[in-house]
Amino acid sequence: MFTGSEDKTIDPDATVLVSGSEDKTIKVWDVASGKCMHTWSEHTGGVTSVAFSPCGKIVVSGSADTTIRVWDVATGSCTHTLEGHIGQVTSVAFSSDGQTLMSGSWDKTIRLWDMAFGGCTPTQEGHTDKVMCTSLSTDGTILVSGSMDKTIMVWDLATGECAHTLKGHNSKVTSVALSHDNKILVSGSGDKTINVARDYQKCEIAMPPTTKDI
User: Fold this and answer.
1) For the chain, which terminal residue's Cβ has fewer other Cβ atoms within 10 angstroms, N or C?
2) Which residues contact 117 (CB under 8 A, 6 or more apart)?
3) Is the entire prediction scored with pTM above 0.70?
4) Is 42:99 a contact under the CB 8 Å cutoff?
């Protein structure tokens, strides 16, 4: 059940699961039965990341073909193709209000897209290697990105500037997440550790690993 996928996302009602695959397709699954209901195939490269909008009516997909596609769940049609990255898109995620889409890429950048108009706001640049993961705070004010360069960058979206750079992992950063109050930042890495940073907003800090052998 639900095999052969690179990334998965589930709708807010937990009834529909969407998966992206290296075979360039996106599959829509019924959670209760485990059956594939639809297959979407527009990408020309492997699908690396998928995300539901908060309302559950839209799915976005990022691909090795450097594009992001926007899908209408009800019709299965691709309504928009977002272009701008020049490297594989590694992560896509919506803001809590569904108005902004965030994407990270192997081109070392993070882009924010206005879903109402499909335009890209100024690009966040600063990593020296591929961006592997991104996370947006619940209130939409802070963006966090993890990279192959082993660092985590914390971005102030009001200014578009990098407010903090966190170092401490010994390998690529593969996942990042913020607590709801924005006070705790958690990261996972290829070095097999999970780091928990509680004072990341105070200064640039080295994070001691708190959990090993993941």
Assistant:
1) N
2) none
3) yes
4) no
